[in-house]
TrEMBL record:
This is FAD-binding protein. SUPFAM superfamilies: FAD-binding/transporter-associated domain-like. It comes from the Eukaryota. Keywords: FAD, Flavoprotein, Oxidoreductase.
Length: 460
């Protein structure tokens, strides 16, 4: 069936509120196509914006029957929510809804709700949950892929907050999945959800704002800036802090070349969730090193992500990747520093790029649920954020990214490599989903729930 016949067949079946954009010149079409990165952006034949869950089920059923490829899009931060003709995009933004249920300590998030929208709504209700560090990241895909956050220290990974999912399946049926209903689908949703269906709605556990260390949900956040030649001393100070399980801390060690000087420097941004006086003593060694600049603030729950709003800008050429490391080695990080310096001196176009270590350490270990996600034991991640303006620099920039990853993994057994499935689908499956039993179960469940690969070919 041609895509135009497909659209004509579907139009009368959908709700009055549903929209279909077919003209790339249409402003609605173009708005839907705006993405976090222009790397490999493709133009679909159509963009469907369903306005009810039933619409989604009907679209999937007909697309599946006629083998018309499609991808869902929420926040548009991944490289996988773009598709070329004759495929179409399923844009979920008209389904957006946030319902806070304080009595049951959950929040229901539907459609393509973004991180900042959820954080603001929860804050107003005096609650919080694990949310991404980037404001414009789509909440549902973030949770489905694991969900690392500053709050991981106190609340756990985002996938472990999921108590129920409403899912549109490959045959168009819409089901609820939780511990009792479709428990195997529920297990797969938590960590690999986008390979099993379109998740229309998630129920997430919420927590009082006080888990962040104060009644109003504010926490201590510091910024210490050093020249790159201080990297070794800084890391030596940070090593024991990152491993210290007496406090709830999180933070990042960032290699960046920010304006106005555009010179590479080291920015340490620790967070402390607890009595701010204790934060001052814990991070005193960072002050004692005599940074070029230092400051501190007490951001509220809905404000803490604002610090990286610049990185959420749409367009241009960007890649975002995370690899997990079991323990932080200063010597390896110093090699990453060298790679970063060489990146900037070889490719000035990649100046906005930054490589960073992010960590979270906690006193009490948050609850981990049985799920497809396997990296709850990782508390240190290398984030390579590559950003350039000229498409032809892609291979060069990716080569530096790979070198940075190789440097941080030096002397690590290859069998223990960890890749974050939400940012890298190309890595061997064993690195994304740990354990042969888990992978076997995922393959069996894929056969059960999406044997034709309507959503993705992963696990087939
Ligand atoms: C600037 C930035 C900051 C980030 N910060 C963090 C962070 O702090 N922690 C972290 O863990 N990750 C972080 N990430 C990674 C991010 O969580 C993943 O890339 C996530 O998948 C993005 O979701 P999205 O809705 O924005 O992307 P999209 O590209 O819209 O969706 C991602 C994938 O999910 C599919 N999909 C979309 N909606 C649905 C749905 N409802 N049901 C099923 N499948 C769906 C898409 O087809 C695509 O394959 C960040 C990424 C960027 C670029």
């Amino acid at each position: 069936m041609s895509i135009s016949s497909f659209i004509s067949l579907l139009r009368p079946k959908l709700s009055l509120g549903a929209e279909i954009f077919c003209d790339p010149e249409d402003i609605g079409f173009q708005k839907c196509l705006e993405r976090w990165s222009n790397v490999d952006v493709k133009v679909p034949t159509a963009i469907f914006c369903p306005s009810t869950y039933l619409d989604v089920g009907i679209i999937i059923e007909v697309a599946s029957e006629h083998e018309i490829p499609f991808v869902a899009v929420s926040g548009g931060h991944s490289p996988w929510s773009t598709i070329s003709s004759p495929g179409f995009i399923l844009d979920l933004r008209m389904l957006n809804k946030i319902t806070v249920d304080n009595e049951n300590e959950i929040v229901k998030v539907a459609g393509a709700v973004l991180t900042n929208e959820l954080a603001a709504t929860l804050s107003e209700a005096g609650r919080c949950t694990t949310v991404a560090n980037g404001n414009t990241v789509g909440v549902i895909p973030y949770c489905l892929g694991g969900g690392i956050s500053i709050l991981t220290a106190v609340a756990g990974y985002a996938c472990d907050q999921i108590t129920e999912a409403t899912v549109a399946l490959a045959d168009g049926r819409i089901v609820r999945a939780n511990e009792n209903l479709e428990p195997d689908l529920f297990w797969a949703i938590k960590g690999s959800g986008c390979h099993f269906g379109i998740v229309l709605e998630l129920s997430l556990k919420t927590f009082p704002l006080s888990i962040l260390g104060s009644d109003d949900g504010s926490h201590w956040a510091g910024t210490f800036i050093y020249t790159l030649d201080r990297a070794e001393e800084v890391c030596k100070v940070l090593e024991p802090i990152m491993a210290n399980e007496e406090y709830n801390t999180a933070g990042s060690i960032v290699l960046a070349a920010p304006p106005p000087a555009f010179q590479p420097m080291l920015v340490v941004a620790p967070r402390f969730m607890g009595d701010p006086e204790r934060a001052l003593s814990l991070f005193q060694p960072l002050s004692d090193l005599g940074p070029s600049m230092m400051s501190s603030s007490n951001p509220l729950f809905f404000e803490y992500q604002h610090a990286i709003d610049y990185a959420c800008a749409k367009g241009d050429f960007k890649h975002f990747n995370l690899v997990g490391i079991s323990d932080f080695k200063t010597a390896n990080f110093l090699q990453v520093v060298e790679v970063y310096k060489e990146l900037l001196s070889t490719c000035a176009d990649a100046g906005p790029s930054s490589y960073l270590i992010q960590w979270h350490t906690s006193v009490s270990k948050p609850v981990v649920s049985e799920s497809a996600y396997s990296h709850q034991d990782i508390f240190i991640w290398l984030n390579t954020f590559s950003w350039y303006h000229q498409a032809e620099n892609r291979d060069l920039v990716m080569d530096f990214q790979n070198r940075a990853i190789a440097a941080i993994r030096k002397d690590q057994e290859e069998a223990n490599y960890v890749d974050y499935a939400s940012t890298n689908r190309g890595a061997p499956v064993e690195r994304r989903y740990g354990g042969a039993d888990r992978i076997l179960k995922l393959r069996q469940l894929k056969q059960k729930w999406d044997p034709k690969g309507v959503f993705t070919r992963e696990f087939l």
